[in-house]
Amino acid sequence: MARASNTSHEGILPDRMIAALAAAGGIRPLYPFAPDQIQPASLDLRLGAIAYRVRASFLPGPGTTVAQRIAELKLHEFSLADGAVLETGCVYIVPLIESLALPAEIAAAANPKSSTGRLDVFTRVIADETRGFDRIAGGYHGPLYAEISPKTFPVLVREGSRLSQLRLRRGNAALGDEALRALHARERLVDRTEAVMGDGVAVSIDLSGVQNGRAPQPNPPPHAGEGKGGGVGFGVVGYRAKRHTAVIEVERRGAYEVADFWEPIAARADQSLILDPDEFYILASNEAVQVPPDYAAEMVPFDPLVGEFRVHYAGFFDPGFGYAGAGGLGSRAVLEVRSREVPFILEHGQIVGRLVYEKMLARPDQLYGQGIGSNYQAQGLKLSKHFRG
Prior knowledge:
The model is unreliable at 213-234 (pLDDT under 50). The chain is built from 4 helices and 27 strands. It has helices at residues 15-23, 66-73, 114-117, 177-187, and strands at 11-12, 27-29, 38-39, 42-46, 50-54, 74-79, 84-86, 91-101, 106-112, 121-127, 135-136, 141-150, 155-157, 162-170, 196-197, 200-204, 236-241, 248-249, 262-266, 272-275, 280-289, 295-300, 309-311, 316-317, 331-339, 344-347, 351-359.
């Protein structure tokens, strides 16, 4: 594959530049990287050996390190060497194996991995002296920590587990309105002509049931569409998480029955869905999305103008996601959705978020879906890799 370059010198670092930055000492892991740890436009972050349960979430703020705040707030600490269960409703801080010594011109942003978000494990990265989560300023030298709070399922993690990913960028990589419209006209970012909304591509919800089975029935049976698989059903538009389940081990793939953890949601004749407060849902976009090889994308997780719910914890889309040349042919964006304090009605085609596209500094050596163990290429409605089917 030809290595296209970005002549503006602003953009997201691709895989080989991430490796070069690490070799130059800009990323400092305690142990060598795992073979698949560097992704096309991001680096998976690994949990360290010790976890701390703390009284509450926090930000250190200027002049304060995360370690100082842990010492003030910790309830107890425990080893992750042999694995440990993180309970729902609790907040944990785990030092990460990777630390940073960034050049002044390189900043970083973090997000949960797709499989983390689809388990409703709320995960954020914290750096010393920061005022915000998941954002690391250029020139930062210091450790990184994961804040982890399982919301629905208790999870078993161990040293080396990967819940978050880091994206590194030089300068302002985001496409403006005109550049985004030109890219959409050239590459068809979603399968809808009028999709650009300001500096992002509008993403709407699919509640028709047509993409995942037959058209909705006027009075579907209570468990219409329930089956073995983690994605395809008859008239199923999503899944609602069950409460009081067994533990999910985050390293295990295809180990759990869907029915033990999820209730399928059948399409309604009016193509609507009422989100119950504090419940967790897996839904899918109405649009097929693609990310061309020279770009990366991020889902904006919550827009107050959209409604009282949060959509998509895991926001990074790598170059090649859904791209025909990487085996995608357009992939639905799977949406992790949680309502807030009040019930909220979603309707088919309602816009629930935006995809912001950013330039790559150069085309990655490998695209998403090209022989790197990508779990969600060419996906429709799909649960995380932990479930059978």
